[in-house]
Amino acid sequence: MRQLDQQAIQVSKLKINDLLSERHKRFSPLQRLLRNAANQETWTSELQALLPEPVCRDCRVTNVRKHRIHVLCNNAASATRLRFLAPELLTKLRTLSDFRTADEIVIRVAASSFRG
Hints:
This protein has 116 residues and is α+β, with helices and mostly antiparallel strands. It has a single domain (2-109), classed as GMP Synthetase, Chain A, domain 3 (2-Layer Sandwich). The chain has helices spanning 2-20, 29-50, 55-58, 76-93; strands at 59-65, 68-73, 104-109. It has a three-stranded mixed beta sheet with strand order 1-2-3. Helix 4 (76-93) links the parallel strand 2 (68-73) and strand 3. The mean pLDDT is 84.
C-alpha cells in the first residue's frame, strides 16, 4: 500500500513537472492554459462593454475559433436576448482586433450558474 502511495506521488510530480516544463514546442501546457484564461477575460470584457444591463453580467466569451465567437450565457433569458442582439453586436465586435474575422456568434446556456 505504501509503495502505491509513493508511486502516485511520483506520477503526480511528473504531471506537474510536465505542465511546467519548457520541453514543449512553443509553450508549455500551463502557459497555453494561462494564455487562454487571459484571452477569455479580455474577450469577455470587450463583449460585456457592448451589451446592455443585465445581459452583460450573464454572458462570457469562452473561445474565439474558426470565425466563431463562442459565448456562454448564465440563463436562457440572457441567451435569447443575446440572439436578438447578435447581428448588430457582431458588426460592433468586428471593429475590435480579437474579433475582426468573426462571422458568427455561437450561444450556449450554462448547465449551472457562474459568477461573472
